From TrEMBL:
Belongs to the LytR/CpsA/Psr (LCP) family. This is Cell envelope-related transcriptional attenuator. Residues 65-208 form the Cell envelope-related transcriptional attenuator domain. It comes from Syntrophomonas zehnderi OL-4. Pfam families: LytR_cpsA_psr.
Length: 297
């Protein structure tokens, strides 16, 4: 399991969102300010569930299918957390606008509905979300000077003019995004999930360098354009102070277990999960159980 990359994802998204909210003054009047704060929920021992959605929206679009779906479940009473990666091809029991894939919900119904469906799948309440447009990451990566990554595949894309070979490489924004979104191998969605985690780790390493502070002004327009959340600035600050989320002994990473299935009629590929397992996976991981990601049908 990749605990480090999972935790760095949380830090990266919280950092990006904080920057966004600092410059978006109108957010201070958002109705979310009048809701119960995360701090008060934590004081009452309530679990906090935040859905992190990585989307690929075109210029001018506000919604898109979810390329990445991660549930951050925080348990303040015992100071533990779980990062649950939900494969984008996870099959729904009922279709949304004709699509049975969980990644279509955000496109058709928005992040609030995605929170609702994920909550039903995992038998928990999911009240908060944060969406990040990965298309904007291309410019962000370029402004950071690129990233160093261990490329695990040979990738040749004449359409994108991206040609990568296995091994340690320095990637620009276009190359990094093409690499992490590639899914034409048998591992498909799971392989792409692992590569996305590697990109987040590489970005965090780049952002930890002192020169990053000087690059923040140039990054702010991209952050504002590519992040949306219903978390208040106060909530984000409180979350950033939960130090135990950075401790590998307190925060666990798990991909929602299941198996690949190809519909013989439509040819569509799905990730099939056991609903009973899904409904107990957060509690089980918190209690120390670990699941094999790929299960037998």
């Amino acid at each position: 399991m990749k605990k480090v990359s999972g935790r760095t994802l949380v830090l990266l998204l919280l950092m990006f969102a904080s920057f966004f909210l600092l410059i978006n003054k109108s957010y201070l009047f958002n109705k979310q300010l009048f809701a119960e704060s995360i701090e008060k929920k934590a004081d009452r021992g309530k679990d906090i569930n935040i859905l992190l959605l990585g989307i690929d929206a075109r210029p001018g679009e506000k919604v898109a299918r979810s390329d990445t779906i991660i549930l951050l479940s925080i348990h303040p009473s015992i100071k533990k957390g779980v990062l649950l990666w939900i494969p984008r091809d996870t099959r729904l029991d009922a279709p949304i606008k004709g699509s049975y894939k969980i990644n279509s919900i955000n496109f058709y119904k928005g992040p609030e509905k995605t929170c609702e469906v994920v909550g039903q799948l995992l038998d928990i309440d999911v009240d908060y979300y944060m969406t990040v447009n990965f298309k904007g990451f291309e410019k962000i990566i370029d402004q950071l000077g690129g990233v160093d990554m261990d490329v695990d595949i040979n990738l040749y894309s004449a359409q994108s003019n991206v040609y990568l070979h296995k091994g340690r490489q320095h990637l620009n924004g276009k190359e990094a995004l093409k690499y992490v979104r590639f899914r034409n191998f048998p591992s498909a969605d799971l392989g792409r999930t692992e590569r996305q985690q590697k990109l987040i780790k590489a970005l965090m390493e780049r952002m930890s360098q002192p020169i990053f502070i000087m690059k923040i002004p140039a990054l702010l327009p991209q952050l504002e354009e590519n992040i949306s959340t219903n978390l208040s600035f106060k909530d984000l600050l409180y979350l950033s102070q939960m130090e135990y989320l950075l401790n590998s002994n307190h925060t666990y990473t798990q991909t929602l277990p299941g198996y690949n299935y190809i519909d013989r009629h439509s040819g569509a590929s799905y990730w099939i999960v056991d609903r009973q397992v899904a409904a107990s996976v957060i509690k089980s991981v918190i209690n120390g159980h670990r699941y094999k990601v790929q299960e037998k049908p």
